[in-house]
Amino acid sequence: MTLATDSLTGAGAWIKAMVDGWADYSEEEEKLTRTFLSPQHKACSEAVMKAMRAAGMTARLDAVGNVVGRYEAAEPGAKTLITGSHIDTVRDAGAYDGNLGVALPIACIAELDSQNKRLPYAIEVVAFGDEEGVRFPTTLSGSRTIAGTIDLATLSVTDAEGVSLRDALVHFGCDPEGIAGEARKREEVAAFVEVHIEQGPVLESEGLPVGTVTAINGASRFAITLEGMAGHAGTVPMHLRRDALAGAAEMVAAIEQRAAAEEGLVATVGRLSVAPGAINVIPGKVTFTLDIRAPENDQRKAAVAALKEKLAAIAKRRGLELEIELLYEEGAVACDARLMDQLDAAIARQGIRALRLPSGAGHDAMALSALCPIAMLFVRCGGGISHNPLESITAEDAEAAARVFLDFLEHFDPNL
Ligand code: HGY
Ligand code: MN
Ligand code: MN
Questions:
Q1: How far is the CA of 89 from the centre of ligand 2 (A)?
Q2: Atom of ligand 1 nearest to the CA of 133
Q3: Cα(345) to centroid(ligand 3), Å
Q4: DSSP symbols for 260-328
Q5: Contacts of 149 (CB under 8 A, 6+ apart)
Q6: What pTM was estimated for this model as a whole?
Q7: Of the bound ligands, which one is closest to the alpha carbon of residue 128?
Q8: Confidence band for 6, pLDDT divided at 50, 70 and 90
Q9: Best probe residue, ligand 1, of 363, 376, 381 (max atoms within 8 Å of C-beta)
Q10: pLDDT tens digits for 272-322?
Q11: What share of the chain in percent tops pLDDT 70?
């Protein structure tokens, strides 16, 4: 596929086709599931590198499994604008979460390259490998590596099969010893700007193809384990049971009730496992996850503290052992005002009403905010649906977003 030469005409269909092609790299039949450092992640990384090179970029796999494409500046020694997003997915995912934010910048750079145009700064497009945190009990390892904030102790975390992150990296063809060296120097980076589907209904409700993100909600994630007493389903009277699943059910309802009572607070129990898991055995052990988010860090932390108390009271009353393990915590992050203004200006130049909106979803941009100013451009997605195979975008919106992003690139002032 080659882009039409007249500045991105046909780019939307080209971008969609590229992302739809990457969706073939899945660990599951008939579904899109691509987890960090899987063989399918490797195959997709190779396809991304091929597309980057065809667009006039150099492309490499870095020490932590990110794909890094680079389009040099007009002059050597110039600063770098980093863009990109993640190519790992949740289970049974939509195709555009993350992936659109890699394909769209590649299309814009292919257009610059077709015009032999170089900018007063270099551009790096990064396809991060670990944003969803599905395979390992950690996440953002790719973006944290580039930001220089990764905790190398996370290399010892293991997946469900007991494979350590370190071993998985070596198997993937990476050198974990090189991770520290991947950190970018602050003085060399102008900004990080990520293009991502909105994953919510606001742009669609406003009739807009794109919007400028103001901030990214903070999130805390926990693994919660309840230990009761497995027993015979037929012989143990109800008042003598220490049923871990009944306790978990009461806790899940309490979590939902607490979040629903407060504007802006969201809480989700996304995974729950029961042991021993037999029809005639009272559940002795349950583990479930909790993901809790809010626009303000104090609000989220207060809700976490209140819920910890509530769960402890339920466990005590039911005679259950309770363990709450923090898996992940990222504070809310504000986007840079100057970058937001530059995105708004590009949107306006493309004849679109500029709208600002917050992100309820987390993104690699949160990690990059430790390195440099960040901003995000949201793209409308059908029904606001995401983390679901029904996730969709239109070629028209992809093309509108590409025009805005290319306009932003051509006017971007790297000396923020
Ligand atoms: O969970 C999130 O917000 C992101 O999709 N990882
Ligand atoms: Mn996601
Ligand atoms: Mn995402």
A1: 7
A2: 6
A3: 25
A4: HTSTT-EEE---EEEES--TTEE--EEEEEEEEEESSHHHHHHHHHHHHHHHHHHHHHHT-EEEEEEEE
A5: 367, 370, 371
A6: 0.91
A7: 3
A8: low
A9: 363
A10: 999 999 999 999 999 999 999 999 999 999 999 999 999 999 999 999 999
A11: 99
